[in-house]
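Narrative of activities, Objective 1.

The group set out to show that a structural description can be obtained from nothing but a protein's sequence at a throughput compatible with the screening campaign. Below is one input-output pair from the validation batch, recorded exactly as produced.
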Amino acid sequence: MLLACSSVQAQTAGGRAASRPGDFIVAVVNTELVTAVELQQRLDRIKADARRDNTRLPDDDSLRQQVLDALIDERVQITHARESGQRVDDGDIDRAIANIAAQNQLTVLQLRDRLRADGMDLPRFRSNLRDQILVERVREREVNQRIRITDADIDQALAARQAQAAVGDELNLAQILVTVPEGAAADVVAQRQARAEQALARLRAGEDFSKVARELSEDANREAGGELGMRPADRLPDLFVSATKGVAVGQITPQPVRSAAGFHILKVIDRQGDDPYKVTQTRARHILMRAADAAQAAQVARRLETLRAQIERGERKFDDVAREVSEDGSAAGGGDLGWASPGNFVPEFEEAMNRLSPGGISPPVGSRFGVHLIQVLERRSATLDPKEVREQARARLRESKFESTYLEWAKELRLRAYVEMREPPV
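Output recorded for this entry:
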């Protein structure tokens, strides 16, 4: 079974009679079925992923119950989405199928043959994909409709931000450190400085800061892309604070900074506590490919990493790839998202975007929408008017409430659904 296909097939296997030898119905959910074979397939895939990632799982009984609950929740959301009246265009399905074929290094015709060999024809597979996309869209719409942000909530958030500004800035910096031994001779210092200049040249050419840090930095945080984490300015070296004072979020110091430890190239990932009316806006574009579960997300990420390498080698253009494979509304415009202020995107997307220099392309980034490749086109400083500041605060508050609101929504759907558990046949 194709890894990218199996999760979609399993999600909507309900509604079909159990037909495999030894199979039986585990649960009836509204008009859908959960079968024993499907449950075992999901368990086997989770266990295989855990072995590959060296992840510890609950005991077998607890894991089985968790997976069964997840399958029931999926069926509940599928039946609800079908009744919502929302529709998915055939073009969206065609794009998703082409992406799945590409992820598995197949043509669409070869994918159809593989599906048939696995007992699923293309019309059924298209129907399953339609359900998956439909659930994602209905979930996003209905959860967002439930989130209520009042003017009092916004006032409180802005007051907290102003109080933080009064205490002082907080900075999240990343660094590439080229060490210089204590008492080093002049030729050694020159050699070390040349290595720092080499790193700076790669960044100016558009390479991702975290990639260069992992390859060249001699700092303990190199595996995290050199990121130091958010800290109050008074807990950072004075040299770092002064060197980055005029550097915008997402930008790097124009020259290596010398300290007793060596040469540092610093990047401002985030700055908080400064004037809420003055922000750094980013114009970015992205390629989004959706994934049904962690196993499919891993395969999508590998596909996007291949596309990223082709773009970086100049074999393909980012906007052309976005038009061809992206499953986002921005695809027709080459993935262009326009100018955005902080808080406009989900946190994981924004954090990855902020780590990029203009021209840089991120590694695959996961979010609740799927897996992204992000490219920053340009940045600018902007002064927001009071209405825009309030909308920015509203967006941040809305995002902070999404996960808890989603869980409430899913729980309510489950409580309203008809769920009948079945015992194994004797």
